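User: Could you check the structure of this?
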Amino acid sequence: MTMTMSKIDNDPDQIDHKTCRYICDAVGERLQQSMRPEPTLSSRLQQLLDEMQRRESDHH
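Assistant: Sure, the predicted structure tokens are below.
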């Protein structure tokens, strides 16, 4: 048994690189999921956008 210990072994508040990376990836994934825009517009908003596009094409 060797007596050399890493800094992480001596400090209970430290986590290893692999665990840190796993936590960062999980947090990043959750943030991406919660910040995604709504996949579909409400029917009223879609009607308004369609009307706006129709009017723009009529003017051109």
